[in-house]
Amino acid sequence: MECGIGDDGLLPPSDLPGTSAQQVDIPSAQQTRTRVGRKLTRMAKLTLRNSDKVKVLFDSRRCMPIGPNKAITDNWSSYLGFLGRKEPNILICSWKKVPATTKELIWQGILEQFTVFLCEGDKEVELSENDVKLQSRFKKKWMAYVGSRWTVFKTNLTTDYIYGPKKDPPYVSDYKFLDKVTWDAFVALRLTPEEKAKRKKAQEVQSHNKCPQRTSRGVYELLEKKMMEEKIKERQEASQDPSELIPPPSPPTRHERWKRARISSSGQYITPEVGLIAERIDSLEEQQSSGSFKSSGTNDLLTVAIGKPDHPNRVRGVGRGYTVSTYFGKQRQPSGMVSREEFNSTREEFNNTVAEMERKLQLLLSSQAFSCSDQPISPAVESGKGSNLSAALNPVDCDKHDESSDEYELYVEDPHRRLVAYGLVHDLASTIHHMKLKHDEVRVTVVRVVVGDVEVPFPIEEVTKVVEAPKNFIVWPRKLVEKVSRKVWKLKHELSPWEHKNEETIA
């Protein structure tokens, strides 16, 4: 569906739905029994083609309209809501999918009708294209509002005309800018299983809202104005001198507005949950007057009564445009909390302490390492090769260990087997240097070097030669690690293989 905004950025009056006052039929007495809701309005003052723009003042912090009078601010919201209903195609699934060209036409149409001024105290600054950052923030906020009105419009069409009591299509009476083809496609889209599931899920989410508000179109701003008028009237009635100048009362508090917005026309709270929270508010008010309760920042009376903090981007009981920071201001840190600098300093000190403890633990493990348990001497291998005796004496078994500090002989094969160092075997973990140990590898530390210029079996960046190995954990092949004992030493240095066999036979 194409946008109806003309080349000059204005909506032609012929495209605007609704009728003039002369075209409205006066209902009969019988017809007045049925309540007729507010329909799409024309806003003739804004759609007249003239060169005059409507000046609207906005709060620079919240970007919310503040004047110069309520009629102007209402016209602003009404016109944006009207554009949100009319311009984007209702067949589009979400506001994010609406074409950027359509959004830009809507924005230009708004600027053609209104002149925006941002107020900072007594100073008024016109919204200009030169201030890109400010205009971007303002545009983002109010185009999101147009999108929300468009979403609500589609929801109302579904509720009233598809599932609701209204039988006539909306393009017949209420929303004549719609056409039959678009409406039939919209109905078919809303009756798909996917859309029905979305609707059911949204209804379930809404069912958890036990404290909905009942306010008019003016929401909390109009509610606050009514409450102020009631306070002034009460003071005037209480005054004995009619000519007495009555000072203005204090504005209603946040919890007072919250309670008032949830009272029905009969004077009762709309849900039992609201009544319970209202009782807590009354109780906290008594405690506050007696001094036993003191509110602080965001932890005020309403927050304590509800038992849940405000959302960072929304504040209960104050209306649109407020966030926690804009309403409460920058909060002081409660007692018991530390600043970011103190936290970073404490964290750095903690990390240093942990590093020092790890260093001491590593030194302790190096000096008192877990060693492998003793293993019975294997018989000599009668192959005629002398090297087989050394390999069969006691290959290390790290699956069993004790807490002694027995030394182990560390051998290399280059290509012949020879002793290069003495070391300790450590059964600490299954990984070393970010690598997993294999079943035929062990973790060792060198305590005495025999041949230092020999390359270690598994070189690392810090250790490539045996002479560099002391005070470092390195990997050594299990078959090249043998336990040192007096008996083994005697067998290796005093007995021949045949004597060793005879000694075993005699034993």
UniProtKB/TrEMBL annotation:
InterPro entries per UniProt: DUF8039
Pfam families: DUF8039
Keywords: Coiled coil
Protein name: DUF8039 domain-containing protein
Biased composition (Polar residues): 17-33
Coiled-coil residue spans: 340-367
Domain DUF8039: 410-482
